[in-house]
């Protein structure tokens, strides 16, 4: 990997890029994943590359939804595995979720490489290598999933997910929690709870709130009640408009 200068003013962004490129070279990230990251970067730039108040409100609701879930599953793709494997495993343990590798551009080789990355960060019982079910409405390998994971989950957390797949999960009756930097994406607009933040920040944010709220039913009620998707996404878009000098 290229050494990122410690003094570079936008070091964090360059470090994430290097992780993606490394993941691509290791066969974890699909070439299309590099392009998807660029779209995320652009949105993050417009958001000022910081965690907003709205992201915190959404992360609380996300944590509450995952803690209230009977069968939570965290869906993982190549970009997520390259960017935030440790943070993802911590979140799965904190909320008692299963992890399922679920790829838009699926190959057995990429699934097993992602599985190895997750296991090297302490993940166990990772699903996805041997899918035995389908997500209705998604043709080809994009629709494969596991009966013990996504197919029987009540809450599914998706990060950096395609809108078509998010919509298919909603049609299946899943409650969907999304992490997505683009407040205009179909994923952001159809998930039940959307955390508009960079994934390496969003996972620890959700884990932190989950630890704080665990076992406190009032806090869980409150976390869910304080979140309204339309209002939240609207406020995020106002931030972007204001950063662009478009007033409020
Ligand atoms: P949709 O399919 O939901 O309409 P899209 O086609 O624009 O959206 P996809 O490439 O399908 O986007 O999904 C990737 C999503 O992940 C994008 O919305 C992108 O902004 C977001 N994204 C990319 N990198 C990150 C990141 N590091 N953290 C959070 N979100 C990210
Ligand atoms: Mg898409």
Low-confidence segments, given as residue ranges, are none
Estimate the global geometry from the Cα principal axes. Answer: globular
Number of helices: 11
Helical content stands at 40-55%
Per CATH, the superfamily is: Phosphopantoate/pantothenate synthetase
Structure notes:
This protein is of the alpha/beta class and 248 residues long. The chain has one domain: Rossmann fold. 52% of the residues lie in helices and 10% in strands. The chain contains 11 helices and 7 strands. It has helices at 11-25, 31-46, 53-68, 78-83, 85-95, 108-120, 163-171, 186-190, 199-213, 217-225, 229-243; strands spanning 72-76, 98-101, 133-134, 144-145, 155-159, 175-179, 193-195. Strands 2-1-5-6-7 form a 5-stranded parallel β-sheet, with helices on both faces. A two-stranded antiparallel sheet has the order 3-4. Strand 5, helix 7 (163-171) and strand 6 form a beta-alpha-beta unit. Helix 3 packs across helix 10 and helix 3 runs antiparallel to helix 11. The termini are far apart. The relative contact order is 0.16. The model has no long low-confidence stretch (mean pLDDT 96). The structure holds adenosine-5'-triphosphate and magnesium ion. Adenosine-5'-triphosphate (ATP) binds at residues 36-37, 39-40, 43, 83, 160, 162-163, 179-182, 185-187, 198-199.
